[in-house]
Amino acid sequence: MADSRDASGKGWWLSISDKNNLLFQMNDGQTLVAWSSDPGTLQTNTQHQASIIIDGGPNIIAFVTDGRFNDGGEHRQFGWGRFSPYFNSPEGSSTLLLGPSMSGELSYLRVFDRALMVLEALTSQRFGRIE
């Protein structure tokens, strides 16, 4: 769906898994980090809104989809995942490929230069704007 990896595999990418959810991964050349939204969060022929919060302070990844924080539900104990404090950077290619192998439509993508709070992600999904 979105891919910023360079020729060596460094960068980040977002895909849709076979569990009908989003899968976010990033690689710094030494460490691979992966976390997904809750299983079943995506349905075909339905427009979705998703926010992926990557916070390098506590090294946490979390998802907010369709106005709901993904808390893990019955599938896992927590809705957020930790990544290694030794992870350097998700910087990859200067080119971002959007939708190269996606069947569907990506209508909007926004990347922030800071981690959003969950409330900000919810507000952005509901009202479409955040400062």
In short:
This protein has 131 residues and is mainly beta. It has one helix at residues 118-127, and strands at residues 2-3, 11-16, 22-27, 32-36, 50-55, 60-65, 68-69, 80-82, 97-98. Helix content is 8%, strand content 29%.
Description:
The protein is built from one helix and nine strands, in the order βββββββββα. The mean pLDDT is 90. It has one helix spanning 118-127, and strands spanning 2-3, 11-16, 22-27, 32-36, 50-55, 60-65, 68-69, 80-82, 97-98. A hairpin with a 7-residue loop joins β1 (2-3) and β2 (11-16). By secondary structure, it is mainly β. The protein is globular and about 35 Å long.
Features:
131 residues; mainly beta; 5-stranded antiparallel sheet; 8% helix; 4-stranded antiparallel sheet; single chain
The largest sheet is: 5 strands, antiparallel
| Number of beta-strand segments | 9
Average pLDDT works out at 90
User: Rounded to an integer, what's the Rg over CA atoms?
Assistant: 14 Å
Distance between the termini: 25 Å
Strand content: 25-35%
Structural class: mainly beta
Low-confidence stretches: none
Main β-sheet, spatial strand arrangement: 4-3-2-1-9
Order of helices and strands: EEEEEEEEEH
| Morphology call | globular
- So how many helices? 1
Helix content: under 10%
